[in-house]
Design goal:
Elements: E1 14-15, E2 45-49, H1 51-59, E3 64-69, H2 71-76, H3 78-81, E4 88-90, H4 93-100, E5 108-113, H5 120-124, E6 129-134, H6 139-152, E7 156-159, H7 169-174, E8 184-186, H8 190-199, E9 203-207, E10 214-215, E11 227-232, H9 240-245, E12 248-251, H10 263-274
Parallel strand pairs: 1-4, 3-4, 6-7, 6-11, 7-8, 9-11, 9-12, 10-12
Antiparallel strand pairs: 2-5, 3-5
Helix pairs in contact: 6-10
Length: 281
Amino acid sequence: MPDVVPPSTSVGAIEVDDPDDPRLADYRALTDVELRVRYEDDAGVFIAEGPLVIRELLSSTYDVRSVLVTPGQHDSLADALEGSTAPVYVATQRVIDAIAGFHLHRGALACGARRPLLDVAGLIETAHVICVLERINDHENLGAIFRNARALGVDAVLMCPECCDPFYRRAVRVSMGHLLHVPIARTRHLPSALEQLAAAGFTTVALTPDPAAEPVQVLDGLRGQRVALLLGAEGPGLRPATQEAAHHRVRIPMQSGVDSLNVATAAAIAFHRSLSVDTGQ
């Protein structure tokens, strides 16, 4: 016997009880690597997982294709869903788990439409502080960097071609949906992008654990200027050529015996040093 969605929670929503319902194709087999939307496919979709992330999606400028929730989550998201024109599907936990291919303990998914990312010229027009990422290929680190960027007032994030997909489900989830509010650009040639930034008046700052680099306090003196903060993947860090192209090489002083920080943690420290954050409090 199929599970039944309680009638009291189905107002304004579409009840579904079949995991094979074609209307739910966007959510099917989310753990299958082969079904991930390619990074280069700007016409694809992305998944927002969890009620907090869905709220960020609904409040963003991204188009929402649909929402899939349990009855309880439908009730808790009622205020955020009000006014949305996207179809809202309500299913039991068992049905949602069968669709996704794993136990979705948050009981809430939404599907957004990707759109073309900006280019470097698009960022230069309006951004004041930019985070530049080279070879960041861990989705959790990438998501955390975007969460930090939104929290600390970074205007935009520019990624090299070797960075992982910012719209992969895990990256969106770890960012708590905040990446949906941060302008994102990508460049196919990072050295050229750094030249464009420098020509536009940006001071480029490469973060490195090298003891010979300037201490991070140098960023205090750059507040108010146009700044591009360069971060590399954990382990290899920024390429030597990328560091050499920067105006400053900066390190975060730390206790002996520790060679580096998690890249998202290092990013947060650099963001805070570079910006005068207005919390409104």
